[in-house]
Amino acid sequence: KWSRWQDIQIEPLIKNRQRIKFDNNNYSLFWADTHCHSNFSADAEGEVDEIIHFARDIAGLDALCVIDNDYYPHKTLTEAEWKIHQEFSRHFTAKGEFVVFPGYEFTYHRKDLNPDFNHRCVIYPGPEGYLLRRIDIQSNTDKTLLERLRQTEAMCYPHHCSYVIIDPEREWNVEVCSSWRVCIEESDYTIKQLQRGKKFGFIGSSDAHRANPGLGGALTGIYAQELTPEALFDAYKNRRIIATQGFA
User: Fold this and answer.
1) Structure confidence at residue 115 (pLDDT)
2) Rounded alpha-carbon distances, angstroms, from residue 168 to 94, 141, 146, 171
3) What is the 8-class DSSP label of residue 11?
4) Conformation bin of residue 214: beta by default, left when phi > 0, alpha when psi is -120 to 50
5) Is the CB of residue 126 less than 8 Å from the CB of residue 229?
6) Tell me, what's the pLDDT at 60?
7) Mean pLDDT by 10 residues, the chain (248 residues)
8) Is residue 125 reached through a cis peptide bond, with omega within 30 degrees of 0 on the bond before it?
9) Element (H, E) at 92
10) Element (H, E) at 143
11) Cis amide prior to 127 (ω within 30 degrees)
12) Cut 0.85: pTM above it
């Protein structure tokens, strides 16, 4: 018997959850990181289930989405890897306890932007969604991606310091800060979008490429009636969210 082997018992985290009442509805504040990567991305570390366990049991998050690049820099997210994301979403989601969304990062670039990123975080409420990559003929532009997403329950949002919102009916929010940059302070692009009358909420996500979601900095606070994929999506759609550079 290996003498240094020890059983580890992870104690349940005690969360002092903030609650508010608005329009006769009760909302609780939940914390999510919906933009972190696993080793399915070429420049990231950590197995998908390892990252999920860390987010739930160590960081104490309420919701998570492990988003790997559809094609970046030269590695493709395969259908088999997408299936793994979907199955882990199904396995780890427990109503009232923890939610795992399946999603991926669409890594498109536009010549009319500077910088030219027009990436999208594509997130589904459950494991029924399908993978649309920029290397696939039916989704090889940001416009065709959004056209295909109209047939789904997905939400998507841009990040980086410049972007083009194509479909406000699907693009409800913008990621304004991550663990490695604060786009809304680095550039006035987002402020100018708001001044021109655009409407969107603010998302904070770690965009972590290390296996520490929830503790890398930048989270989204979500005011939802309950901790379910449907209730969280309703909060995203109605912009009952806040972005923070730190962690809860």
Assistant:
1) 86
2) 30, 17, 10, 5
3) P
4) left
5) yes
6) 93
7) 76 85 96 97 96 94 98 95 98 97 96 91 96 97 96 95 94 96 94 96 96 92 98 98 83
8) no
9) helix 79-92
10) helix 142-149
11) no
12) yes
Q: How far is C-alpha 22 from the chain's CA centre?
A: 26
Query: Which residue type does 221 have?
Result: G
Which among 178, 176, 186, 152 is positioned nearest to 239, based on CA atoms? Answer: 176
Strands 173-177 and 201-204: parallel
Cα 76 from Cα 70, distance rounded (Å): 6
Helix or strand or coil: residue 147?
helix
For residue 130 the two structure tokens come to: 């399908």
Token pair listed for 231: 């209730």
Give the residue carrying structure tokens 């047939």: 151
Nearest partner of 147 among 170, 127, 164, 129, judged by Cα: 170
Whether the CA torsion 116, 196, 189, 103 is positive or negative: it is negative
Kindly report the number of other CB atoms within 10 A of residue 16's CB atom: 4
Q: Which residues of 21-55 are buried (b: 16+ CB within 10 A; e: fewer)?
A: eeeeeebbbbbbbbbbbbbbbbebebebeebbbbb
Q: Which long-range contacts (CB under 8 A, 24 or more apart) does 81-85 make?
A: 81/40, 82/131, 84/40, 84/48, 85/40, 85/48
Question: Minimal CA–CA distance to 142: which of 125, 158, 123?
Answer: 158
pLDDT computed for residue 242 by the predictor: 97
Cα distances (Å, whole numbers) of residue 4 to 10, 11, 127: 18, 21, 40
